[in-house]
Amino acid sequence: MPCDNIQEDEDHELGQETKGKKGKKRTRMHNVYDRLGTVPPIRVQYNEDGQPVGDNASEFSNFISTLVKCKISLRHTDWRKVEVEQKIQLWTTLKMYYVVDDKLKD
After folding, report:
1. Which pLDDT tens digit goes with each residue over 66-105?
2. Is 45 inside a domain boundary?
3. Selection from 23, 27, 5 nearest residue 14 by Cα
4. Inside any domain, residue 78
5. Chain-centroid distance, C-alpha 11
6. pLDDT average, residue stretch 6-18
7. Integer Cα distance of 48 and 17 in angstroms
8. Looking at the domain assignment, is residue 22 inside a domain?
């Protein structure tokens, strides 16, 4: 799984070591990462503004969040300043799991 290296840090960061304290855990999207090679990429529908809609929209958006959180440094405060190579790597990984129209890349 591409983001295995951050799981322990997330548990610690979210206070999971404190007994009795309940909090919202970050999604790791194991259900998506685990289907690589066993399920073909899933098609995502978009509205006229290019926003994901339909049954897979929430899962798709959450998956993008996991990719960005584990691949892009927090030092980047502006997406436009992220290196093109990093964006290409994210896009390539995303297309392994979802059928995404290349027109939406920009």
Report:
1. 999 888 888 988 989 999 999 999 999 999 999 988 888 7
2. yes
3. 23
4. yes
5. 18
6. 45
7. 44
8. no
Of 63 and 16, the one with more pLDDT = 63
The amino acid at 82: V
- The single residue listed with the structure tokens 């990984």 is 93
pTM comes to: 0.71
Domain range for 88: 27-101
How many domains does the chain contain in total? 1
Alpha carbon distance 91, 70 (integer Å): 14
Structural contact between residues 44 and 64, judged by C-beta atoms closer than 8 angstroms: no
Is residue 64 within 8 Å of residue 87, measured between CB atoms? no
Residue 38 has phi, psi (to 5 degrees) of: -110, -25
Mean pLDDT over the full length of the chain: 81
Q: Is the pLDDT of residue 20 over 60?
A: no
Q: Please name the residues in contact with 20: beta carbons below 8 A apart, sequence gap of 6 or more.
A: none
Do the domain assignments include residue 5? no
